[in-house]
Design goal:
The structure holds two protein chains of two kinds. Chain A is an alpha/beta fold. Helix content of chain A is 35%, strand content 14%. Chain A contains ten helices and twelve strands. Classes of the chains: A alpha/beta, B alpha/beta. Chains A and B meet through helix 9, strand 12 and helix 10 of A and helix 3 and strand 3 of B.
């Protein structure tokens, strides 16, 4: 795969930079006198949260559904992405008549704290200097992301969310919501996630971070000030991570050992195989829409996530007294967040006699299955959500669920 | 892996299934219920629609679980042998094990768990002491097969079959109180109270026990 031409690279980068300072979505600024308490002990002020909404909030504000995005996702769930021009990342799930029906529910998705699509993150202006935060941005946690989202819900006057839904890191946020804000979460759908990041997953993240930091253009995290960009490092990080999102079978089905635009191997290190070419493309295009420091900070937040650790090492304690209705979903070929991790959460919820459903979906698409066309996933989400809405007394076209 | 794996399909709920109606009748309105081996969720639906219960289910087959959750029922994938240990004591008012105990690996331990997590336990099971079973074994010399238990010995999920007498003995051994026992004949009719116990064990095709500690 050839390098992106320089002019194009520049124009795409300017699109990316524009989204950081002036996002194509709603945004709420919390001023300096309303700081955000952080788990690291410090505070963040001022801070901003960029978010998208779809559908209409009903009169008693009971139909709000919060979608939490994954590591490299953003608030553009169901609309054209402002940088790539591609459809939103969950258009299969969210929209009119979709499982998360925007004709019936008021759907909110925030760009996470530490992100690079408008919410305050390492590429936001540092109030203490003339430049951006860069490596001076505090290390944030999943708990901090959720605390920031809760502040947005306060701002929107939403006391309780009908449902919090998320896959992967979004699932971690969903669990954090359910554990920390029990009264504010009527139902929760954590998908393909875990209550703590496994050592294997921390290891993969460390490889990604080292790739970014090994790029001389990372400039110790001050590449914005230096007018540089660690393109190669971030692309390699993305390539490595992307492999973990797929399954061996899915890769084989897609590419096998097929060669890329050639009849024989070249006895060189060009992208002979289609799978190499695919990964290179994934890496290069990722750099155009994502900030390298955000990647470091958000992967770190996932590494630090351990819900049981906050509750004397007993996961069940995180959910004591919960009235939330849970629906956990995992995928058979997901080796990044295997079914056993979801089952552990189910057992913890059973231990506190919580209302929990658990569905494992058979698929060979790996971790990414939650973003793809999986009819059983859609049936599960719509069935569960409709039943929750019916319990909450929300009527609509699909209410009742049966 | 698991013994149920041999079972070809999810338990489909025949709304006229008399044991299910009997079970529904035993459950107190508005109570909290766990249905183990809930199949396609038919009993849970009857219970939540008509008896206003807070119902949960456990089902081994993923297909069954997915069907239940898609209907809005609270069901998890799991099985009686492995997953009951995770529930706290007295988690439910009623725990139901319908036509499943004979397919568990350790029926005695399962029953102990049921009595721990439920204030009341309802167990229904096919009676292997039925005269058809006895005569097939006695005269044909083959493992009995009936419309209720149609599988060949080599593929049946039912690895721990018992008679009504056997089950009553296990309840006694565990110190469980039998609050109610209903015995149904092949046509689904209840056998009268006046019938002596040995005759119930001979003519009953299935039994439904309501137990408590």
């Amino acid at each position: 795969m050839s390098e992106t031409p320089k002019a194009e690279a520049f124009s795409e980068n300017s699109l990316r930079l524009a989204e950081i300072s002036n996002p194509s979505s709603e945004i709420v600024h919390f001023p300096a006198d309303q700081p955000l308490q952080l788990d690291c002990g410090g505070t963040l002020a001022p801070f901003s949260i960029a978010y998208k909404t779809y559908g209409t909030l009903n009169a008693d504000k009971s139909n709000a559904v919060l979608i939490c995005h994954a590591l490299t996702g953003d608030q553009h769930v169901a609309n054209e992405h402002p940088i790539t021009g591609k459809p939103g990342w969950w258009t299969t799930m969210v929209g009119p008549g979709k499982p998360v029906d925007t004709d019936k529910y008021f759907v909110i998705c925030t760009n996470v704290l530490g992100g690079c699509m408008g919410s305050t993150g390492p590429s936001s202006p540092n109030p203490d200097t003339d430049g951006v935060y860069g490596p001076d941005f505090p290390v944030i946690t999943i708990g901090d992301m959720v605390r920031a989202q809760a502040r947005l819900m306060d701002h929107l006057g939403i006391a309780q969310l009908l449902c919090v839904i998320g896959g992967s890191m979004g699932g971690m946020q969903t669990l954090e919501w359910a554990a920390k804000y029990k009264d504010r979460v009527f139902s929760a759908i954590p998908i393909a996630c875990a209550a703590r990041h496994s050592s294997q997953n921390i290891a993969f993240h460390e490889v990604g971070r080292q790739a970014v930091m090994a790029d001389p253009d990372w400039c110790q995290g001050r590449y914005d000030d230096e007018k540089k960009l660690p393109r190669k490092g971030l692309a390699v990080a993305r390539m490595a991570a992307h492999i973990t999102y797929l399954s061996d079978q899915a890769l084989y089905r897609k590419f096998g050992r097929n060669l890329q635009d050639r009849d024989a191997v070249t006895f060189g290190f060009d992208a002979d195989f289609q799978v190499e070419s695919y990964l290179r493309h994934q890496g290069v295009s990722f750099v155009d829409r994502f900030d390298a420091n955000s990647y470091l900070y958000i992967t770190r937040a996932m590494d630090y996530f351990d819900l049981a650790a906050d509750h004397d090492g007993v996961l069940a304690n995180a959910f004591t007294g919960t009235k939330t209705r849970f629906c956990l979903i995992s995928f058979t070929s997901d080796w990044l967040f295997p079914t056993e991790e979801s089952r552990e959460i189910v057992h913890a919820l059973n231990a506190v006699a919580a209302n929990v459903s658990f569905v494992e979906i058979e698929t060979d698409k790996g971790h990414d299955a939650f973003l793809l066309h999986e009819p059983e996933l859609f049936d599960t989400v719509s069935g569960f959500l409709n039943a929750a809405a019916a319990k909450r007394g929300i009527v609509g076209d699909n209410a009742g669920g049966r | 892996m698991n013994v149920h794996a041999a079972s070809p399909a999810v338990r489909k709920t025949d709304p006229s299934r008399i044991d299910l109606l009997l079970i529904a009748e035993m459950v107190t309105r508005g109570s909290r219920v766990l249905d183990i081996g809930c199949g396609d969720g038919g009993l849970l639906r009857i219970l939540s629609d008509k008896h206003d219960v807070d119902g949960r289910g456990i089902e081994l087959s993923q297909q069954g679980v997915n069907a239940c959750v898609a209907q809005g029922l609270s069901v998890i994938q799991g099985d009686a042998d492995r997953d009951l240990i995770y529930y706290p004591d007295d988690a439910f008012d009623f725990v139901i094990l319908s036509q499943t105990i004979q397919a568990t690996r350790k029926p005695k331990e399962v029953l102990e768990q049921l009595l721990r997590i439920g204030r009341h336990v309802i167990v229904s099971f096919p009676n292997f002491g039925h005269w058809r079973m006895r005569t097939q074994l006695l005269f044909k010399g083959t493992m009995p097969r009936t419309s209720n238990l149609p599988d060949s010995w080599y593929e049946t999920p039912n690895i721990h079959l018992c008679s009504i007498k056997d089950f009553a003995a296990l309840c006694a051994e565990l110190g469980a109180k039998v609050e109610r026992a209903e015995v149904l004949n092949a046509y689904g009719y209840r056998l009268g109270f006046t019938m002596p116990f040995f005759a119930q064990n001979l003519f009953g095709e299935q039994a439904v026990f309501l137990l408590s500690r």
